[in-house]
Amino acid sequence: MIKGVGVALITPFSNFEVDYEALARMVEYVIKGGVDYIVALGSTAETATLSHKEQQQVLDFIVERTARRVPIVAGMGSNNTHALVERLRSFDLSGAVAILSVVPYYNKPSQEGIYHHYMAVAEASPVPVIIYNVPGRTGVNMTAETTLRLAHATERIVAVKEASGDIEQMQRILDGKPENFVVLSGDDGITVELVKRGGHGVISVAANAFPEQFCDCVHKAIAGDTEAAERMMKEQFEEPLRLIFREGNPTSVKVMTEAMGITSREVRLPLAEGSEALCEDIKSAVAKYQLR
After folding, report:
1. Distance between CA 101 and CA 158 in Å, rounded?
2. Are 258 and 26 a contacting pair, CB within 8 Å?
3. What pLDDT sits at residue 292?
4. Which sign, positive or negative, has the C-alpha torsion 287, 265, 160, 103?
5. What averages of pLDDT result for each successive group of 10 residues across the chain (292 residues)?
6. Residue 47: per-residue pLDDT
7. CATH homologous superfamily of domain 4-223?
8. At a CB cut-off of 8 Å and minimum separation 6, what does 176 contact?
9. Which residues are designated catalytic?
């Protein structure tokens, strides 16, 4: 259920409040576009700026709106292990098939600390766990050895979202993982290469903006037509992918969803809205590549 293309869904805002009408449009847009599952409350959703009450409301809304058409994964991470364990026991995750839990950020834990953090999370979580390595945001890299140690230690940890950008680290995970352990890209641009090496898909930012085209590309790669997928990556997505990360995530992808008439580009501080220069470049790219 967590293979193929998962979309790290944005949270639309209007006057700094969650825009549920726009969120409903996003859910319909990505499902129609062919995503295999939705990831709610990830970093792309600006979850760090949502209150705990808003987080539950957003997840509940997505669950209701999706109506079991695709599975839902819920982002549940913290740099306070005890607080996260307590939250996992009280937060309603009944509509989710798994949680996505980021490596603890800011604290810069050792590999041993990361291991014991995730073992505590796996024990407390009512649903399976996808571990998430993103050193660019957390300040620490979870090594392939730690990922494999976790994968072999408990069946509760079922997958890794790897956003280190280190394809050789990902290869070591692929080479040593248990048979049913899923390896997902956390970087849209490296997805086809990871799938060629035996990976299982991506949790994507790009699928917020052009899900149909991006899903087609990744699904081609998974089906074995990597040549066509690589050609699409180079000819169709190279410039759009650069643009949707140019001023950070989700700032830039929200500019693109605004250009497509789905949501506004509004973000919550400390993020700032995309620049007018970015808006103009994205409008040109949407037209040039026929992204909607």
Report:
1. 12
2. no
3. 73
4. positive
5. 95 97 98 98 97 98 98 98 97 97 97 98 98 97 98 98 97 98 97 98 98 97 97 95 96 96 97 97 94 79
6. 98
7. Aldolase class I (3.20.20.70)
8. 144, 148
9. 132, 161
3-state SS record for the chain: CCCEEEEECCCCEECCEECHHHHHHHHHHHHHCCCCEEEECCHHHCHHHCCHHHHHHHHHHHHHHHCCCCCEEEECCCCCHHHHHHHHHHCCCCCCCEEEEECCCCCCCCHHHHHHHHHHHHHHCCCCEEEEECHHHHCCCCCHHHHHHHHHHCCCEEEEEECCCCHHHHHHHHHHCCCCCEEEECCHHHHHHHHHCCCCEEEECHHHCCHHHHHHHHHHHHCCCHHHHHHHHHHHHHHHHHHCCCCCCCHHHHHHHHHCCCCCCCCCCCCCCCCHHHHHHHHHHHHHCCCC
Residue ranges covered by each domain of the chain: 4-223
Cα separation, 247 vs 85, in Å, equals 34
Q: Which residue has the tokens 């996260």?
A: 84
The distance of Cα 113 from the centroid of its chain, to the nearest Å, equals 24
Instruction: State pTM to two decimals.
Output: 0.96
Q: What is the pLDDT of residue 124?
A: 98
